[in-house]
Design goal:
The protein is an alpha+beta fold and about 240 residues long. It contains eight helices and ten strands.
Length: about 240
């Protein structure tokens, strides 16, 4: 869609917004393949300009914050507006990657929006380290949502019978003073199929083999921060 916007701007440098209609053809439903182009003042520059959509579901485009101001046009058809500045901002956000903040709690909690985990798991050059860091931080964020005072979690890890994934058991949550917040916390997940890999890539501490492992809030944040920085460098 960004490439389509660039083509529109190449033909119409003053373009600021696109108006798109909804196609009710049952064979090809969704937003239509042509847009009308307006300048910043709303004046019409061109009509019926071809535009290729990567996503044609009007509801999805609205949820993305891309197509807004749905309304009936002068012919009674439903139409919406795409502001090219909004599209450019989304493209820049994707290129930059998830934000890297100095606030540990903000960084950990941001992993719960799903984007960090998805970005780091699916990007072609993402390493096992970045994916593990994202999942560990997301799990710690889920823990903090239930127990805001949580500062660390101690648990044992093992592989399932098929060796497909690492499981967590006997998890105990502590606050910053080392007091038990909750015993037998059951909702902590790790991303790996190997316990040693889970420890190495998930930011966990283990005093010696066979001992329980510990993940602290600070380690979860530091590990995720480094993974995001590595990912950002890989993008550029």
């Amino acid at each position: 869609m960004a490439e389509g916007a660039r083509r529109v701007l190449a033909q119409h440098p003053n373009a600021a917004a696109l108006t798109v209609g909804i196609n009710h053809d049952p064979v090809s439903p969704g937003v239509g393949p042509y847009v009308d182009v307006q300048d910043a003042g709303g004046a019409m520059i061109a009509r019926g300009v071809p535009f290729t959509w990567a996503e044609r579901d009007p509801n999805v485009l609205e949820e993305m914050g891309l197509v807004t101001d749905w309304d009936n046009d002068s012919d009674g058809r439903m139409s919406g507006v795409v502001r090219l500045a909004d599209l450019a901002a989304q493209v820049q956000e994707i290129q930059d990657g998830p934000a890297v903040t100095d606030d540990d709690d903000d960084l950990i909690l941001s992993a719960r929006d799903g984007r960090i985990r998805s970005d780091l798991k699916q990007r072609a050059w993402a390493t096992e380290h970045t994916a593990a860091a994202a999942v560990a931080a997301e799990s710690f964020a889920a823990l903090q949502e239930q127990y805001p005072e949580a500062d660390s979690v101690e648990f044992n890890i093992y592989t399932d019978d098929n060796g497909d994934y690492v499981s967590v058991c006997d998890a105990t949550v502590y606050d910053a003073l080392g007091r038990v917040v909750v015993d037998d916390y059951e909702d902590f997940d790790l991303y790996d199929t190997d316990p040693e890999g889970a420890i190495r890539f998930g930011g966990l501490r283990q005093e010696s083999p066979g001992c329980p492992v510990v993940l602290t809030r600070d380690n979860a944040a530091a590990n995720l921060r480094q993974a995001l920085q590595d990912d950002r460098e890989a993008r550029w």
